[in-house]
């Protein structure tokens, strides 16, 4: 009798908190999260009062059925209710409290472009089993990416660009079997890219530029069928460009500029699906492969500041389009081919080579 009364009481309690909104434990966790942050210009936390964190709490979204907190979305850049308040400073400091990990049903954490949030990524984030989006771009976050981030089997977006992250790319990252968008740009990440990077079969964008990443480009990267955008620029990458990269089905952008890449230009790159190719400022040597054809369509082809020698291949005139061509600062020699899309090119595309001649340079 006593037990069933108790059960009834518990059921009533659970149902009533369900009706009234978020569970008290989620509310407590949110308040602890808020306490570690300071935002005094927009007042984004001014609505974080009262018992129902699922209504009116700016940037908090609950699952309509479970009433558990599902999304935290605090964007410093584009934001709905604050658009009218343009002119106000979008700045927040403080840190991301580990209390956030008590929101165990979180599927999305977006705390982006606040410029001043520091501290580390709480290690416990790797234990949020439902997490799909982690976006912390544009803060001052330091420390390392949690080594066991690979446990987040549902994670589709990992964006910590424009912060002060150090340490290596965790080896476990290759276990993020749902990952589609990886953005680590503009941090201080060192070490090598995991050799088995190609295990990230769902990946479509791999953006790692502006770090201190060294070692070779893992050839397994070309196994990633959906990969359309590879940006490894401004790092310390060495070794050759794997030939298989030019055979990737949907690769549209390949930016490897500002590294220490050596070896020859793979012929496969010249007639690939790539339309933005920047290999500037490396140590690439040998001739430019004479394999251009109708499949060669480049919005940008920047091969400047390398050690390329020999002539500009005749077949380049048969490319369907090259919008911006830069072959300057190499050791090329011979006459510049003529072709329809060549008409708009200026001398700056060809200067500082050994002995190039012909329009737009001096006649041969
Ligand atoms: C804050 O809550 C009030 C109602 O309590 C609502 O009118 C207002 O739009 C909310 N502000 C934000 C930024 O969500
Ligand atoms: C946080 O920013 C405020 C200005 O919004 C400033 O007064 C305060 O000193 C900052 N706190 C820290 C720890 O940087
Ligand atoms: C890199 O991030 C810092 C903030 O941590 C920012 O000030 C800087 O403009 C960023 N650089 C680039 C090239 O995005
Ligand atoms: C990736 O996951 C597998 C299976 O769960 C595990 O055995 C392995 O240790 C993980 N790899 C890394 C580098 O964490
Ligand atoms: C290619 O990369 C170099 C070096 O990072 C940069 O200066 C140049 O502007 C880039 N080229 C194009 C066309 O964007
Ligand atoms: C692209 O160039 C490679 C290397 O010469 C050649 O084997 C291949 O047949 C070419 N592919 C196309 C589609 O032109």
From TrEMBL:
Residues covered by the Disease resistance R13L4/SHOC-2-like LRR domain: 119-204
**What residue stretch is flagged as signal peptide?**
1-21
Residue stretches making up the Leucine-rich repeat-containing N-terminal plant-type domain: 24-63
Q: List the Pfam families hit by this protein, alphabetically.
A: LRR_1, LRR_14, LRRNT_2
- Is the Repeat keyword given for this protein? yes
Record-linked SUPFAM superfamilies: L domain-like
One GO cellular component assignment for this chain's record is:
membrane
Question: Where in or outside the cell?
Answer: Membrane
Kindly give the PANTHER family that the UniProt entry links to this protein.
DNA DAMAGE-REPAIR/TOLERATION PROTEIN DRT100, DNA DAMAGE-REPAIR_TOLERATION PROTEIN DRT100
The protein depicted here goes by the name: Uncharacterized protein
């Amino acid at each position: 009798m006593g037990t069933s009364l108790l059960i009834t009481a518990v059921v009533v309690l659970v149902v009533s908190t369900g009706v009234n909104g978020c569970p008290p434990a989620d509310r407590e966790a949110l308040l602890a999260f808020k306490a570690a942050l300071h935002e005094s210009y927009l007042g984004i936390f001014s609505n974080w009062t009262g018992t129902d964190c699922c209504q009116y709490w700016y940037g908090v979204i609950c699952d309509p059925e479970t009433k558990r907190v599902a999304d935290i979305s605090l964007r410093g850049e584009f934001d709905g209710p604050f658009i009218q308040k343009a002119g106000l400073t979008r700045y927040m400091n403080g840190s991301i409290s580990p209390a956030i990990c008590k929101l165990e049903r979180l599927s999305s954490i977006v705390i982006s472009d606040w410029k001043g949030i520091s501290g580390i990524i709480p290690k416990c984030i790797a234990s949020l089993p439902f997490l799909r989006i982690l976006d912390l771009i544009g803060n001052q976050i330091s420390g390392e990416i949690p080594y066991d981030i690979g446990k987040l089997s549902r994670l589709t977006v990992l964006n910590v660009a424009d912060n002060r992250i150090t340490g290596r790319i965790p080896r476990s990252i290759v276990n993020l079997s749902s990952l589609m968008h990886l953005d680590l740009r503009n941090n201080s990440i060192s070490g090598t890219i995991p050799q088995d990077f190609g295990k990230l079969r769902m990946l479509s964008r791999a953006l790692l530029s502006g770090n201190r990443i060294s070692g070779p480009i893992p050839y397994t990267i070309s196994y990633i069928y959906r990969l359309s955008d590879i940006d490894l620029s401004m790092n310390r990458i060495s070794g050759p460009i794997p030939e298989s990269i030019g055979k990737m089905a949907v690769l549209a952008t390949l930016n490897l500029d500002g590294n220490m890449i050596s070896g020859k230009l793979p012929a496969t790159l010249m007639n690939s699906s790539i339309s933005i190719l920047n290999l500037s400022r490396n140590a690439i040597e040998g001739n430019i492969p004479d394999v251009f054809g109708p499949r060669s369509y480049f919005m940008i082809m920047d091969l400047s500041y390398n050690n390329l020698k020999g002539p500009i291949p005749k077949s380049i005139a048969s490319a369907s389009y090259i919008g911006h061509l830069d072959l300057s600062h190499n050791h090329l020699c011979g006459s510049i081919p003529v072709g329809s899309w060549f008409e708009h090119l200026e001398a700056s595309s060809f200067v500082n080579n050994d002995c190039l001649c012909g329009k737009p340079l001096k006649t041969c």
